[in-house]
Write a structure and sequence with these properties.
The protein has one domain. The protein has two helices and no strands. Helix 1 runs antiparallel to helix 2.
């Protein structure tokens, strides 16, 4: 278990114990305040997790789109240039020859 997870579990345990003790001692306002703080912390944690997930999804989508766009351009240019490479390979082998009759 990670060190940070242990700390979070300890804090959660102490908070739940404090809520129980405050209800037992008839200090309802403190107990409800701790419940509110606990709920706000959980909501903030959920927001951070959702934000990280959205950022990761956006980066993955952007990475896929940019690679597919480059591949589409390469595929298009290769389909145009490749017939000329096979028919006129002398052009790309170091010289251009022209015969006059």
């Amino acid at each position: 278990m990670k060190k940070s997870t242990k700390w979070v579990l300890w804090i959660l345990g102490f908070t739940l114990a404090a809520i129980f003790i405050n209800f037992f001692m008839n200090l309802f306002s403190f107990a409800y305040a701790l419940i509110t703080v606990l709920l706000l912390a959980l909501m903030g944690w959920g927001f951070v997790v959702k934000l990280k997930n959205d950022v990761r999804q956006y980066e993955d989508h952007y990475r896929r789109e940019s690679h597919s766009e480059i591949n589409d351009i390469e595929r298009y240019t290769r389909s145009i240039i490749s017939p000329y490479l096979t028919e006129n390979s002398r052009l790309f082998q170091g010289g251009f020859s022209c015969s006059i009759k």
